Amino acid sequence: MTRTRTGVWFVGARGNVAATAITGARGIARGTIDDTGMVTAREPCTRLNLPPVDGFVFAGHDIAERPLLHTATDLADSGIVDRATLEAVADDLRGIDERVETGTARNCGSAVSLADGDTLDGVDGDRGVSEVVEQIRADYAAFLEEHDVDRLVVVNLASSEPPVRDPERYDTLDAFESALEADDADLPASSLYAYAALVDGHPYVNFTPSTGSELGGLRELADRENVPHVGRDAKTGETLLKTALGPMFAGRNLRVMSWDGFNILGNGDGKVLDDDENKAGKLQSKGGVLSEVLGDDAHNRVRIDYTPSLGDWKTAWDHVHFEGFMNTKMTLQFTWQGADSALAAPLVLDLVRLVAYADERGEGGTQTHLASFFKEPMDVDEHDLSRQFAMLESYVEAHRDAEAEPAGAVRTDGSGGDEGAVGVDAEANADTDANAEAER
User: Fold this and answer.
1) Structure pTM?
2) Is residue 190 domain-shared with residue 293, that is, in the same domain?
3) For residue 368, which of 245, 228, 246 has the smallest C-alpha distance?
4) Where does the record place the region Disordered (predicted)?
């Protein structure tokens, strides 16, 4: 198989999910961990010739200055990142951290107080929106110029933003670009990153509930430039179960009267979601799936509370009150406890592989076959998880005849396919710091 190198640009590159994804990808390349949790590592996706994870070259934006290695170390202390893997990839993380540029916090909400240094927004936010976008584009371009990668995929992993007020104002590309020039104060960071990616032909993945490329003007841009984009709000825990169990009740004609979910979590995302303004988008995406599956008659409520001591671990307790034959009232209760970043990180790697694959084949626009990854999949009204999986399977089946060789499965033997596999980031980072020499 021809070796490919894919640039991966994380917005929120020093956060927990990004740190877990990067550490895991480098661990796969070095053979210290396997590919458990990755959808693309099993049938049917292994039939596709996807770009290899050991060919990912990472960089990104963040508004925090805390080193990537420190974040990964905290995750290892919490039992999330494998300790042996952390030791094996520590120099990789140091080198990658030097490729993290200063980001923007524009319209991220008052709860986002993670910045401990300057941001792209200037002193007191006095830098214009168009200036911020041009700097983001310049950062993408500089990375591409310096590193030998086949394409760049931009993934939004930043904390949830408040919803955009009156998004219809940006329903056309002309309207969006006019808003840029007019220094529109309502444009959020996620959409600025998305525009900067799409206008230069880089695929964009919105892993968060934030607006991202959802705006009509950005959809128009993606279609015009024939660039893949997908989102919103990855489905990793409680909502994943809802989209599996909800259709079960509907299929058996059991009437759900109420479904209440109570969530507690720590970490930075939990702290941000403790703010009502930032929480609004998350509650909408978590609660909306049941309305689509069960209808609007069922009482459907979701709570999210911040519990600092939990760190990256989250717990969801759900109470389902349903009615069966002869109006018999019954209940289902379940508890989901998981490590937020360990659930999310493999899906991030999956999405990079799948949108890079689509981009290589000129399949731009919304990637509807990836609906199973998201709570609010763009342009998809289907929320039944099994039917969403079927959409991905149909996509794979449609591409089987076009594949000239076996699928590009994730390598887990540490060989990386050639001598550069475990040192791929060292090659890309060789000119930045002596620390990267250890990656060779």
Assistant:
1) 0.87
2) no
3) 228
4) 401-440
Query: Residue 26: its pLDDT value, please?
Result: 98
Of 124, 18, 2, give the one whose Cα is nearest residue 51.
2
Structural domain ending residue among the three candidates 320, 339, 358: 339
Print the domain residue range for 203: 6-233+342-439
Which tokens is 236 given?
């990793």
Asked if pLDDT for residue 162 goes beyond 80, the answer is yes
Longest alpha-carbon distance in the chain:
73
Q: pLDDT digits over 175-212, tens only?
A: 999 999 999 989 999 999 999 999 999 999 999 999 99
CA distance 140 to 137: 5
Band (439; pLDDT cuts 50, 70, 90): very low
Share of the chain above pLDDT 70, in %: 82
* Alpha-carbon gap, residue 31 to 208, rounded angstroms: 30
Same domain, 109 and 226: yes
Per the CB < 8 A criterion, the answer to whether 211 and 191 are in contact is: yes
Higher pLDDT pick, 199 / 292: 199
CATH number at residue 252: 3.30.360.10
Cα within 13 Å of Cα(303), Cβ side: 11
pLDDT averaged over every residue in the chain: 86
Which residues are CB-contacts of 9 (< 8 A; sequence separation ≥ 6)? 58, 59, 60, 61, 140, 143, 152, 153, 154, 155, 197, 202
Residues 174, 254 within the same domain: no
